[in-house]
Amino acid sequence: MSDTTTTPDIFDDAIKRLDEAAQYTAIDPEALEKLKHPKIIIQVSIPVRMDDGSLRIFDGYRVRHDDTRGPGKGGIRYHQDVDLAEVKALAFWMTCKCAAVGIPFGGAKGGIVVNPKELSRLELERLSRGFIRQIADFIGPDTDVPAPDVYTNAMIMGWMMDEYSKLNGRRTPEIITGKPIPLGGSLGRNDATGRGAYYCIKEYERIKGWKPEDITVAVQGFGNAGQAVARLLHEDGYRIIAVSDSRGGIVRPEGFDVPSLIHVKNESRELRAVYCHGAFCELVQADSITNAELLELDVDILIPAALENVITTANADKIKADVVVEVANGPTTSAADKVLRDKEILVMPDILANAGGVTVSYFEWVQNKAGFYWDEADVQQRLHKIMADEFNAIYEKAAHHTIDMRTAGYAHALDRIGTAIESQGTQSYFRGDG
Ligand code: NAD
To answer: Which of 34, 86, 304, 348 has CB atoms 3.0–4.6 Å from 331's, for a disulfide?
Structure first.
């Protein structure tokens, strides 16, 4: 089956994983059916006064996929390619992710069709506040709690929290997570997604008896999540030999000095192979590489950390990595998944590998509600326990049924979602035979 000649609807493709995983759980068919339909979808138009005085209207979406286990939870994406199918898929993945790691949230997601690089900072602020005004009746600390995603950040979360607080008539930090620390953000949220993936890799390192210095890594997408996982692996001695951003990548078989790369990327927005001593940076030798080439490098660990649908049937058979760690949401299509499985490539699925972000978002929400703030070591320790426990539960389920980790991850999530939905009664209960 191809996934490139006709682009599949990403939501339809995403929910294909449910039926396969359901074979390994006792989930009621009604509960499974419920998960194939997002609970609420809202589409809004956001008028924004641009700096030159003109008016532009932007399209925005918020989807609450399921809230049986708790308020909907999920980020807001700013990207020119955002569409409803994508937001539905991302919301569905959030439902599965929160259940996979056992935090008491459902799934939601939002997005605005915009290239944020074309907007001034003032225009971005007006757009962000405008979006919140349009969806304010639809979100809430106990109904739907947004967060950052691609091309949104802590400052944008701060504007959104402020706008919601004004509408709500009281300061409401628990409406949104990923906020700046002084506005109620949690310590440890900034690198939580990458750190969660890192804890998964560390569990696998323990199982395989890896020596970090023998392991090579390529990271596609050197943003918030990609930088954090690269930095943590580098600190342990892993060799990060390739990284990329939207404009392309660089490769260096000896490995990069990751803190220097991060420093230069965040100062200049350019990805350059450098080595920095304090404020002094010098260029080091590296070759340019396309994003497509990066995916096909002969590395031990491949980390897609940018956008979805980058591993398809067009390139899956060329992937040479032994392990794919899905820091991005949905980087692998369901058809490509089968190819990777046949090649015995271990895929740590997105609903596990990138769940560190939403886990610390949950911690942030708890801290905002309690008005009591934890130190960073406390956040990391709690995150570590959740990621290691859930990684091992999913890894053991996969081994027990001889299935891949994605199917096991979904089955693990369905165990939790299924029992929650069934607790409200299914046909067999109402018929009197359950
Ligand atoms: P980000 O905006 O900080 O970084 C994205 C990076 O990807 C940037 O470096 C950008 O240049 C690069 N990029 C964009 N288009 C690309 C392309 N076509 N090819 C290669 N690189 C490209 O975003 P982020 O928060 O790091 O999110 C990255 C991925 O991780 C997304 O799939 C997101 O849904 C997922 N994720 C993020 C979090 C989080 O807490 N930030 C949580 C869970 C999942």
So the answer is: 304
Q: Which of 82, 291, 307, 352 maximizes ligand 1 atoms within 8 Å of its Cβ, making it the mutation to test the pocket?
A: 307
Helices 334-342 and 10-22: crossing angle in degrees, nearest 10, is 50
CB atoms < 10 A from the CB of 55, how many?
A: 8
Q: Is 109 a catalytic residue?
A: yes
Centre of ligand 1 to C-alpha 327, Å, is: 8
Q: Is 299 in contact with 218 (CB distance < 8 Å)? A: yes
At 434, the pLDDT band (50, 70, 90 cuts) reads low
Cα dist. 96→124, 254, 319, 347, 408 in Å?
31, 38, 26, 16, 12
> Could you tell me the pTM of the whole model?
0.93
- Residues 294, 248: Cα–Cα separation, whole Å: 9
